[in-house]
Design a protein that fits this description.
This protein is mainly beta. Helix content is about 15%, strand content about 45%. It catalyses: ATP + H2O = ADP + phosphate + H(+).
Length: about 100
C-alpha cells in the first residue's frame, strides 16, 4: 500500500511504499521507497499519512527494477597464497552501487 510521508531531504510530502519499521527511543522509524523520486529514506512515524484515493490512481514515476542477468561480483583475497580473484557475491558492495549511480547521473 502506498502512503504519504514527509521527506526532510526533499522538504515536501511524497508518495511512498513502507518497507520496514523499527523502534527507536523517540518513537518508530519507517524505511520508505519514494515512488515518484526513486529514493530510499527513513521517516518518523509522525510524518506518515493515508493517501487520498484520487492520488492513489496516479501512476508512479519510479519503479523498482533489477538489471537483467547481472549478478554481483566481489574480489576474493587469499592472504595465505597472496592471490586475488574476482568471484560471485551474495550482495552488491557499496563501491559498486556508488559507481553505478554515478554512471546513471
Amino acid at each position: 500500500q502506498v502512503y504519504v510521508v514527509f521527506s526532510e531531504e526533499l522538504k515536501c510530502w511524497c508518495r511512498a511504499l513502507v518497507e520496514s519499521v523499527w523502534c527507536q527511543a523517540d518513537g518508530y522509524q519507517l524505511g520508505c521507497f519514494l515512488v515518484d523520486y526513486a529514493k530510499y529514506c527513513s521517516v518518523a512515524s509522525k510524518s506518515i499519512r493515508v493517501l487520498a484515493a484520487a492520488f492513489a490512481k496516479i501512476p508512479h514515476r519510479a519503479k523498482k527494477c533489477r538489471l537483467h542477468c547481472t549478478k554481483p561480483l566481489t574480489l576474493h583475497i587469499d592472504y595465505c597464497e597472496n592471490t586475488a580473484k574476482i568471484g560471485p557475491a551474495k550482495r552488491w558492495d557499496t563501491a559498486a552501487i556508488q559507481h553505478f549511480r554515478k554512471l546513471l547521473e
